[in-house]
């Protein structure tokens, strides 16, 4: 529904498209889904959320107001607000496409950490550029006093990260350009043909993506924010794992294991020594000769010498022989 209360029907189409894309994915990216839901709910403001959420006028990104009043609410919340259904739907479709790819490649914790970092960096760079243009060139009305909202800056940063090392070509509004330069092409074309967009906000997103890649190239350790997010997710999931452990049936290693076909002849057991899946009628591992339930293979005699096969050697032989 737009700001006057009328619905143009674009949000139901967005929801249907997002549901279809998630249904066909083998792994459902939760962070991308959460971002889509958060942006959409903030725009729709259903029920009690309407009273809890700040109004659009309270969160416009405006460099002058942020610096004058140290208004962090405008700094951090403005990316999640949109001025109309076309603005929201276009950004969310872009987020769905980029988010699914990046979260599938990186993992949910790393992706969430990256989005939070890109949001703060894109907003900070945009604020710095607006202030610099005002101080150096007295561009107050054009950039320093400009009002803007939307997730576009973060999306431009994500586009830079997604295509940073791509050798493919990409279509940008009918133009075929190298994928690594697609964000720059989109920045120029949008500025030329779409009125009312924030050039400095989009540019800040591109520069944030480039800076993020440079920083990650210099830093080889674990992402501390991702580690914190993993711990939080582990704490949240622990009660569910505990309940599932109480009421669910747990299979012990080395016991009978039924293949996906579900037939009685295909029942298998996994060797505890080499991890090879054996036929259920066998009592000795075909790969290493270990009896079912034993944790180490038997000692073999060859040419008067004994040979102990390590687990790594057994796994290597299994891969060479069976390709798994």
TrEMBL record:
What's the domain of life for this entry?
Eukaryota
Domain named RanBP2-type is located at: 269-288
> What Pfam family is a match for this entry?
Rhomboid
What is the predominant subcellular site recorded for this chain?
Answer: membrane
Transmembrane intervals:
109-130, 142-162, 182-213
Keyword Hydrolase on this protein?
yes
Q: Which PANTHER family match?
A: RHOMBOID PROTEIN 2, RHOMBOID-RELATED PROTEIN
User: What protein am I looking at?
Assistant: RanBP2-type domain-containing protein
